[in-house]
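Data card: per-record layout.
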Amino acid sequence: MKRKASFLLGLVLATIAFSFGSAAQDLKPVKLPPPQTVGGRPLMQVLKERKSTRGFGPATLPPQTLSNLLWAAFGINRPDGHRTAPSAMNWQEVSIYVATPDGVYIYDAQANALNSVLAGDFRAATGTQSFVKDAAVNLVYVSVLSKTGNAASSEAEMYTAADVGFIAQNVYCLSSAPVRVRESIS
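The structure for this 186-residue chain is written out next.
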């Protein structure tokens, strides 16, 4: 049920984006600073201390923290264009939408930038729980099934769900890693 709700949410955001593309003209693209790829805590320590918490505040996410977060999620980490998270058959079918108080963007890993999609605060529409409207940013993972080629529908759904899980896990690990990132996200 949740998987279908997430898929429908992505479909709704994509439809809104394409239907009201002119509304994004008021929203400027954001060039992110290069991700900080050194430092942080050892992975084993992060995993040992990993836990779920929900603490959202009105503070905005600093551009460096957002850059680190998106790069960890599904950024490019090799000259051949491969990503920080695995992708079945190298489909690279997952797009990450970033909902902020200013609008909705799509993450461009190649340029390490946020491209404008839709101006306005749509954070409340990005999830089914009431607290999503208060988060500094909400990440919406959308699988573009047309990138899965001739895969059977059930196979494409299974692999894309796994790919989104890998990406989300990278976000969770980074959010638990360096204290400064966790404090910025909370």
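Known properties of this structure: The beta strands are 30-31, 94-99, 103-108, 113-119, 138-143. The mean pLDDT is 85.

See the next section for split statistics.
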